[in-house]
Structure formats: C-alpha cells, structure tokens
Amino acid sequence: MDSVIPEKRWSMVKLSEVHKAASYYLTQPAVRLLARTSITPNAITWLGFLLAVGAAAFIITGHLFAAGLVVLVAGFFDILDGALARHKNQATHFGAVLDSTLDRLSEAVVLLGILVLYARDQSIAPILLVGVVLLGSLLVSYVRARAEALGLECQVGIFTRAERVIVLALGLLLSQIAYALVIALAIIALFSFITVGQRLLYVWRQTKTN
After folding, report:
1. Mean pLDDT of the 45-58 span
2. Which of 51, 13, 101, 59 is nearest to 185 (CA)?
3. Would the CA dihedral through 131, 137, 138, 142 be positive or negative?
4. How many Å apart are CA 141 and CA 78, to the nearest integer?
5. What is the distance between the alpha carbons of residues 86 and 34, in angstroms, rounded to a whole number?
6. Rounded distance, CA 188 to CA 130, Å?
7. Sign (positive/negative) of CA torsion 20, 25, 28, 30?
8. Catalytic positions, please?
9. What is the pLDDT of residues 119-131, one digit of tens each?
10. Helix spans in 3-160 (H)
11. What is the C-alpha separation between 98 and 62, in angstroms, rounded?
12. Would you list the domain boundaries of the chain?
C-alpha cells in the first residue's frame, strides 16, 4: 500500500509540471516582447482584471461570444504577469498577493455577470449552479493557500484556474447551442469539488508522513 501513495503523488505533481511547461511556452513570446518595455507585472495583473470586468459587462448585455473571447484573453494575462515578473526578476510578495486577489475577483466578477444574466430570466437552477461554481472555485484556491501557509506543498489537482477559464470560455463561445453554458458551469462545479478533494487528500498524506 505504501508503494502506491508515492506513485499517486508523483502523478498529481506531474500534472502540475505539465501546467508549468504549457504556461512557459504560451507566454514566452509575449514575455520577451514586454520585457523590452516599461510595463510592470502588476500593470499586467490589473489589465487582466479590467478585461474580466469587460467580460462581465458583455455577459450582462447578452454578448456572450464576445465575453468568451475576452475571458480567454484575460486568462492569458493571468499567466503572463507571473511569467513577466520572473523574467524581469521583479517577483515580489506583494505582487503575488495582488495577483491572487485579483484572480479571485476576476473569476467572481465574471460569474456575477452570468448570475445577473440568469436572474433576469428568473432561471432558478442556473442561478444556484453559478453559486456552487463560485463556492467551488474559491475553495480550490483556499485549500492551496491554507496548505502553503502551513508550509505544505499543494500544487495539485485536475481542475485548476486554467481549466476553469477554458471551460467557461468555451461555454460562452458556444452559448448559441442550447444549454452549452449551463453544461460548462456544471463541469466546472463538479471538477472543482473533485479538485478540492484531491488537494485535501494530498495535504493529509503529507501530514501523515511528517
């Protein structure tokens, strides 16, 4: 039994390494370009948040396809700020906290936009689903933050922010298809809570070996 646990840990950590490698190759061209300018990583962070606010505005006004495109761009900026900070050696504790805070706000703003959209139609089930998605996404981030505050590693899980952004953007882009956005929200809700369980289990295993 003991030989199985390290293998499971390795597979979850390997997924985290895949995320890092993908982020690196996606951001490097833009990072090299931005590194020649005076644009700071924190400015990129704020720009990503403003794009999320714009996406929410598109959703509220019923322009869901445009909102999906903006969500994807905002998601790119979400990984670009950290990559730029590391490239320019400008990574700071405040920048990390600002990035995490605005990431949570960005996600909440977009989901609140969807909430307004469904509230206008008085669609009770989708409204509740949005609430579950918001709770699940916050818990995914909270478990990691709480674990790392205790000195434990917690960069695991099959459905992190990147996956949530992609699925939500696809739901918005395909919103002309019946229930596409609802299906996307349901997928995010389900796998967010699975990820919460994965992270709790991973943290528990670390505490058992310490």
Report:
1. 95
2. 59
3. positive
4. 14
5. 12
6. 10
7. negative
8. 103
9. 988 889 999 999 9
10. 4-34, 41-60, 64-87, 93-120, 124-149
11. 30
12. 4-209
